[in-house]
Amino acid sequence: MSGPDTIDLKGITWNHTRGLVPMVAAAQRFEELNPGVRISWKKRSLQEFADQPLAELGARYDLLVIDHPWAGFAATSGVLTPMEELVSAEFLADQAANSVGPSHESYRYGDRQWALAIDAATPVAAWRRDLLEARGVAPPETWEDLLALAREGLVIMPGIPQDTIMNFYMLCARPESDLFASEEIVVSDELGVIALEQLRELASLQPREIFEMNPIAVYEAMTRGDDYAYCPFAYGYSNYARAGYARRVLHFGDVVSLDGVPLRTTLGGTGLAVSSGCAHPDVAGRFAEFVAGPEYQRTQFVENGGQPGHRAAWTDPENDRRTHDYFGNTLPCLDRAYLRPRYPGSLAFQDRDGGGVPIREFMMDGGDPKAVMATLNRMYRESRSGGA
């Protein structure tokens, strides 16, 4: 129970082992090291996170686990306290130097750091080694290999709008790409149409159930049953690479190449932010340093099911041992990941009612890809003018 002198902090995170358990464990240990502090965490679904405006969350909670597209809104709304006011310059320098891919940079907007990258993720490949070996098949290395495996009925991938748009970005983020180079169009029709047709071809070789599945649902399907052996790109969850977490262990690695160039998947992950309404920002800042620091990230964060944002954790041999080399095998994918836009209205374009909807419809039923591009460009312009 809280006493009159207890400092209470409330936090909000997402309702998966990876999002909740390491934060609860961190709070418990921080309380043990700091008598008189109590930190409580509430969980909710990823979609509920996207549905409730950050300003409302900031009014109710002190500590917020956020997605990096919120950085633009944070910079213009004042709902979060810049990390420069909460942690030392030396700590931020270490975070930048030890970022997993562009994770640290993803929470920087308007020359301020709005969150600390406590969790790093991007779509990676996942497979059931036992099922592939039983068929004498290796994980695909090229787009053509992937299509061949899909024709055998062994491939599954997430197909809800939030994931389809990330995969669209992936296929457009080519060396010659003009992806988000202007405020008028998402990408040239030439590249966009090719990407749409590639996604449709791949989706046509999979069950229609994928269009109701997010990455967690895909991994559950792969581990609970034996119908699917390979997922070409879904946000990685190291939990499924750990013995005892699911019925079967998944192995993870880099995604396929296209035209001889490895694909760049779209960066995800989460950051820990502090509300500007927090009554005890000094304590919140110390907790943020504790969670995001290299020692906790490398040890307890991973041990409690987390997928850390500090590079020291990703290069630690012990963490690879406990996850069948998840971290070492997927780190190259993180390091070249595409950093999606973070302007104030970007989440409206990327959420379940955004640009992924017409992409998903085209993947499901076909149509005119140029008309889809026109719709995407219109939605993009509206999101840029409407804010968040």
Folded structure, characterized:
- The chain is an alpha+beta fold and 388 residues long.
- It folds into two domains: 7-121 and 267-327, Periplasmic binding protein-like II (D-Maltodextrin-Binding Protein, domain 2, 3-Layer(aba) Sandwich); 123-266 and 343-386, Periplasmic binding protein-like II (D-Maltodextrin-Binding Protein, domain 2, 3-Layer(aba) Sandwich).
- The radius of gyration is 21 Å and the shape is globular.
- The strands form four sheets. Strands 2-1-3-12-6 form a five-stranded mixed sheet, sandwiched between helices. Strands 8-7-9 form a three-stranded antiparallel sheet. Strands 4-5 form a two-stranded antiparallel ribbon.
- The chain has 19 helices and twelve strands.
- The longest helix is centred in the last third of the chain and has 18 residues, at 369-386.
- The two termini are 38 Å apart.
- The mean pLDDT is 95.
- The protein has helices at residues 17-33, 46-51, 54-60, 71-77, 89-97, 103-106, 129-134, 143-151, 161-172, 189-203, 215-224, 281-292, 294-303, 311-314, 317-322, 326-335, 346-350, 356-365, 369-386, and strands at residues 7-14, 37-44, 63-66, 108-109, 112-113, 116-119, 123-127, 230-235, 251-253, 257-258, 261-262, 270-274.
- Helix 10 crosses helix 18 (356-365).
